[in-house]
């Protein structure tokens, strides 16, 4: 009897030399709205990083590697239903592989059904169409408030301050 693997086969986004940092980021936003977190993680280089300097509580400050990004993103659609990105401003830098992006995401918080709106500033560096470094500046207080987890975050911050 022949055994067949029935798992969904997905295409890994590898080496896309014609894609600029801005195009890569806009693809990321499209995949975020589509809730395709696997394809979104595939935009990272195998050893790419993601930094969240303002992360607080249990949120990681750094992810190392594509698979760490994939694991981090896996549950995102269960937390936030991003429906629109109504504002995107891309600023070019002296480095042709790096852009700074200001954007707003809106939608609904899955747990509460409440509206979600968060502003971000993100610095993205790519190489051959893949993200090598992603630095995301967002407000952990605004994110926790939108997710309905603000009391838990404040409790975690109080615990950190007590140490």
UniProtKB/TrEMBL annotation:
Pfam families assigned to the protein according to its UniProt record, in alphabetical order = SnoaL_2
Which InterPro entries does the UniProt entry name for this protein?
A: NTF2-like_dom_sf, SnoaL-like
Q: Where is the SnoaL-like domain?
A: 26-134
Per its UniProt record, what Gene3D superfamilies does this chain match?
3.10.450.50
How is this protein named in the record?
A: Nuclear transport factor 2 family protein
The organism of origin for this protein = Streptomyces griseoaurantiacus
